Amino acid sequence: MSFSDLFDSEFKQRNKGHFSAIVRVALADGKFAPEEKAFLDKLALRLEISPAEYAEILENPLKYPINPPYLQEQRVERLFDLARMVHVDHHLGDAQDLLLRKIGLALGFTPENVDYIIEKAMILVDEKVDLDTFVSEMMKHS
């Protein structure tokens, strides 16, 4: 296996993990709202999740556990990835904040600060900041 194949493989695994985390959060109430399902369909394409992988993840999203990072900086980095995915084009409308709040709690942010964290994350994602800026700004306030 070449180095580029290894990188591609790790990138795809990470994408599947992120996608699975979003599916798990969206399924927390036992079903998808129509806008959530449409968003997942679109997100799977963007993340290069194959139709077979998509079906497998929907059937068993626990196969790729969320595994909240232990360190706060790693949580913020994961939030950056997931917030950009959910926010990609405001496809979810009002459900976007609810989904991100659920993701924030699943990542290990506390109920006391998750609303603030998500609001700040969305402002930074709207501003299209890079990862370093996002982490720096979020670490000041988390």
From TrEMBL:
Matches recorded under Pfam families: TerB (PF05099)
Domain Co-chaperone DjlA N-terminal: 20-57
SUPFAM superfamilies: TerB-like (SSF158682)
Highest taxon listed in the record's lineage: Bacteria
Coiled coil (UniProt feature): none
InterPro entries: DjlA_N (IPR007791), TerB-like (IPR029024)
Name of the protein: TerB family tellurite resistance protein
Organism: Flavobacterium fructosi
Lineage of the organism: Bacteria, Pseudomonadati, Bacteroidota, Flavobacteriia, Flavobacteriales
